[in-house]
Amino acid sequence: MNIVNRLKVLSFLQYFIWGSWLTTFSSYMIDTLHFSGAEVGLVYSANGIAALFMPSLIGIIADKWIPANRVFMLCHLICAVVLFYTTSISDAGSMFLFMLFNAMLFIPTIALLNSISYFCLEQNHLDAVSTFPKIRIYGTIGFIVAMWSVSLLGFELSNMQLYLAAGSSVLIALFSMLLPKVSSSKKEKKKNWAETLGLDAFVLFKQPKMIVFFIFAILLGATLQISNTFSSPYLHDFSLLPEYQNSLIVKYPSILLSVSQMAEVFCLLLIPFFLRKYGIKRIMIISMVAWSLRFILLAFGDPSPFGFMLLLIAMLVYGCAFDFFNISGSLFIETETNSDIRASAQGLFMTMVNGFGAYFGSVISGHIVDYFTVNGTKNWTSIWLVFAVYALMLAVIFVFSFKYKHEPERFKADIINH
């Protein structure tokens, strides 16, 4: 098996692990363990907390002391043990601690996988710009396959999804041994602590437009976490209505949710055109409006024929809502920073979105869900409309607060170069 195919398998397994539980674990905690919305939000906030500091810390270890592929293998082996033990936990406090431990080791492997891929492609004289996207797409496929597997096997409301993730973690750890050794960067020029920790990117805060951009990175990161945390429990709750108990949506909600990832692939292809044509400000506004539209469609969707169409459109809109900020935002950072701080700036962007944004989104949304829960019954229409208003308010405020002059020629060149 050549190196590209090995990296494709690695990408597939990496996101298969995440897809095994990320969108369905909340349903297991709510419907089976009877956790409150706030408790579920707390558990999901573990990803945000881990994303604040662990990628940088593990990255330093991989750069300076232990080859990245060995660190990658060790992280996944430990994650397998943690996930296996977590299957027996039934209280919210312990669940948070163990999922935090898992996140502290799993989240960094996402960045490590990218580093390993770039190293292997370079060693084999392959162009990363043209080759890596073909590898990364297998990650999205892995996520989708995991969601379908969990749904078709009936694992959505059981701890079997964690067993599946644990087994896959062992598999990817063993498979990573087939990769060549990734050498450390000991020969690189000595960096100061600010550079090592990525703190040099904070120079961007001297620009008012970047301050606004990063604030909205946090606020939009929250919308993504809201969607990941509560979409599955929402679909499962249709089983409480007699007329929908046997509907396909209730039986296989993850299959419907996987349409979101499929739409994400399509929208990814539209980004270069939209960035050149409309610029980052307009497509970020489109993203915020898309999030609002998704929440509105979820509010009024149901398993009836017309309601199903609303839910299906909500899944399709997700692709635009996610890609038009997360991916476009990353490209915007590329065009606004020089080569000395690009890596640090990208790390700062991900910290804002997947760290602070994910944490606040998980915690606050959990309390909102509890506020609209009476005698164990959730008023999902009100819940989704609150989130829709939130996203729409972001769009309105962003229009007036983000000052940015679009330069199509420059952006086109930057996209081609990167």
Describe the structure.
With 418 residues, the chain is mainly α. It has 15 helices and 2 strands. The chain has helices at residues 3-19, 25-32, 37-64, 68-86, 92-123, 128-152, 160-175, 193-196, 208-236, 248-251, 253-300, 305-336, 342-371, 380-401, 408-417, and strands spanning 373-374, 377-378. The chain has a two-stranded antiparallel sheet. The longest helix has 48 residues, at 253-300. The radius of gyration is 21 Å and the shape is globular. The protein starts with a helix and ends with a helix. The relative contact order is 0.14. The model is unreliable at 413-418 (pLDDT under 50).
Keywords:
15 helices; 78% helix; 2 strands; two-stranded antiparallel sheet; single chain; mainly alpha; globular; disordered C terminus; 418 residues
